[in-house]
Design goal:
This protein is of the alpha+beta class. It has helices at residues 2-24, 176-181, 232-246, 253-263, 275-307, 318-334, 356-371, 379-386, 391-414, 428-449, 456-475, 483-504, 519-525, 541-549, 553-563, 577-585, 615-625, and strands at 31-39, 54-62, 67-74, 81-86, 96-97, 101-104, 112-117, 120-125, 134-145, 150-161, 183-184, 515-516, 530-536, 565-571, 593-597, 607-610. Helices cover 42% and strands 16% of the residues. β6 (101-104) and β7 form a beta hairpin. Mean pLDDT is 76; it is low at 16-27, 45-51, 190-219 and 348-353.
């Protein structure tokens, strides 16, 4: 078994090296270009041509599933630009472009753009007095896109025209109708840069498409240009180094914690084992820990390449962060003797779980998952280059990062004699467990800190229920119970955590827009709109209770739709003379107070609700008023 695992890891280790030669000979972008010459007919109705003029037809043929934007794409996309000139002449030639197909942009369907779908031909009329033989130099710039990603393409071609007498007639070519519908494009210096369309990325409760797009024209310089990647060999070397250094990044607290736990692993807690048995346990733990690291990076490379995501982008999902926070919190509780984990065993020197190999493997996966938000030295340039490459290259680079991170553990598994440099498990390991637990609790703080504010309360409730559930797991079950009773209790505890997680990851309700009170704004709206004015303060406990029970977002959204209300909030936390003046006009000196102002001539006769009231009271008042 051990030999099989080691052989498998060695195969994964050598796979990037064996594949790199093929990747160094990577083909050009999934696009073919052909150039044909034809003779234009003598047409008196066509003032743009003369008898004997030669036309160059430049055809681009993208592979299936790829498309590009037209020369005049619209509000999104990069324009396709073909620059043509004759060798020895600095003057650019006119280029005629087809119009393209008008469709919603695949990445931003709310925007209409002009696309080139499939094979498309551009036309370059040559001067009638061109001296033969002549070389036509072409430079093509476009944005080539598939359903998941886009890549900028810049290609150069040279086509030679030796003689004109034997050229075929242009009107007999299949592209002739397209030539008639084509039109000249702007000169290269007249093309305005545009923001390339990109797939939508979740950044929180709202999506990036809601933000206005900025247009930039930048020529960046890099402080450490020697670390920028341009070849797969350099990417692999830097990826190996970056993965190795990821073990020592101080921001990766859980990795440090789990690594320390693995290094002092030994035999069954409390048992006396031989040096040979200790070496075997040391080898197995590090080997399967490394296997977990490599497995995670392999899966991550497939996910990122298939979904077109960036490194760490998975952590833009509040749902993932909350679930991961609960998992790390549960792991920390296991290190404080609240309960014992059945699979992922973090207890130092304790390899008495049902399957120590599965424990080491799953711990390696978890350690690498928690390391994903961090970006160590050399990693930025590697990922910037790799994530715009084909899927095979992405996989090779990510496996290389995984190999670099797993390298210390692979070396220790290959030389089990290194175990003598690590202290044997003993009473001191209990203190180490607590230190590791505090590291994991600090990681929970970090994860919760990066959550959007709207998810904070849900995350804290989830952690509290997780703590209660795993206390039930540890305190209410033991080996003296029947298997059925023990797992019934544990299943109930797990179900409680699952239910809490399902509730916590629900997106928060859209908050009703409250307008901050100002006397001028209020006077302008009075009589013109139906107004609900809430007087509140941070120090007012009754006000906060009212907001949580009656003036909830759900109720306010419903009342807003039914009655057409505009919501205004008067904050009296600090001195607010204008707000206090309005409150006194309503016959009150204390809060909470809610006043509803009707539209029209009765605007000066608002309906006032004091102190605490229910949703039913509020609805009855609104029905009475409107």
């Amino acid at each position: 078994m051990m030999r099989t695992v080691f052989t498998l890891l060695l195969t994964i280790l050598l796979w990037p090296v064996s594949s790199v030669q093929a990747q160094l000979q990577m083909p050009e972008p999934p696009l073919n270009i052909s150039v044909d010459f034809a003779r234009l007919p003598d047409s008196k109705d066509n003032a743009e041509t003369t008898a004997g003029a030669v036309l160059a037809a430049v055809t681009i043929i993208p592979e299936k599933g790829w498309y590009t934007y037209s020369n005049q794409p619209g509000s999104l996309g990069q324009p396709t630009v073909l620059t043509a000139s004759l060798a020895g002449s600095p003057e650019p030639l006119e280029v005629r472009y087809p119009q393209g197909v008008r469709k919603p942009d695949p990445f931003s369907p709310e925007e209409m753009v002009n696309l080139y779908l499939g094979e498309v031909t551009f036309f370059v009329p040559l001067p009638p007095d061109v001296a033969l033989p002549a070389d036509l130099r072409l430079h093509l710039s476009l944005l080539l896109c598939s359903e998941k990603s886009c890549m900028p393409v810049s290609l150069e071609r040279t086509a030679s025209l030796r003689q004109a007498e034997a050229l075929p007639a242009a009107e007999k070519q299949p592209w002739w109708p397209e030539y008639g519908a084509s039109a000249p494009g702007p000169q290269p210096d007249q093309v305005e840069p545009r923001q390339a369309a990109e797939p939508e990325t979740t950044t929180g409760p709202e999506t990036a498409k809601d933000a206005p797009e900025e247009k930039w024209s930048l020529n960046p310089r890099y402080y450490q240009s020697e670390l920028e990647v341009g070849s797969i060999w350099k990417a692999i070397m830097l990826a190996l180094l970056a993965g190795f250094l990821l073990n020592f990044m101080p921001c990766v607290l859980p990795v440090v914690s789990l690594k320390i736990s693995s290094l002092v692993s030994g035999c069954v807690r409390g048992a006396q084992c031989s040096e040979r048995a200790r070496r075997q346990a040391f080898t197995e733990h590090n080997l399967f820990f490394a296997a977990g690291i490599l497995a995670y990076f392999l899966v991550l490379s497939l996910v990122l390449s298939l979904l077109g995501l960036a490194w760490g982008e998975l952590f833009q999902s509040p749902k993932l962060i909350m679930i991961l926070s609960a998992a790390v919190f549960a792991l920390a509780l296991s290190l404080f003797d609240v309960y014992t984990l059945p699979i992922i065993n973090l207890r130092s020197g304790m390899i008495d779980s049902g399957n120590p190999r599965a424990s080491a493997f799953s711990t390696g996966v978890l350690a690498t998952l928690l390391a994903t938000p961090c970006s160590g030295p050399f990693l930025g340039g590697v990922l910037a280059w790799a994530l715009v490459q084909p899927s095979m290259v992405v996989a090779i680079v990510f496996i290389s990062i995984g190999v670099g991170m797993a390298l210390p553990y692979l070396l220790m598994s290959a030389w089990p004699g290194l175990v003598r440099f690590f202290p044997k498990p003993g009473a001191w390991t209990v203190k180490l467990e607590r230190i590791v637990g505090f590291f994991l609790l600090a990681t929970c703080i970090y994860l919760i800190n990066i959550l959007p504010q709207d998810y904070l309360l849900s995350a804290l409730v989830l952690l509290w229920i997780t703590g209660v559930s795993f206390w039930i797991w540890g305190a209410w079950t033991d080996l003296n119970q029947s298997t059925r009773k023990r797992w019934t209790i544990r299943s109930a505890a797990l179900s409680l955590v699952v239910a809490a997680a399902a509730w916590a990851v629900q997106p928060p309700e859209i908050s009703v827009h409250w307008r901050d009170f100002s006397a001028e704004d209020f006077r302008g709206r009075l009589g013109q709109e139906r107004l609900l004015v809430d007087f509140t303060a941070d120090w007012c406990v009754s006000c906060k209770f009212l907001e949580q029970t009656t003036l909830t977002d759900k109720n306010l959204a419903d009342w807003g739709k039914r009655y057409g209300l505009t919501y205004i909030r008067v904050d009296l936390t600090e001195q607010n003379p204008q707000g206090m003046s309005l409150l006194r006009e309503l016959g009150s000196q204390s809060i909470p107070v809610v006043a509803v102002f009707p539209q029209g001539s009765d605007a000066n006769r608002p309906l006032v609700l004091r102190d605490l009231f229910t949703s039913a009271n509020m609805e009855e008042a609104l029905d009475q008023l409107f």
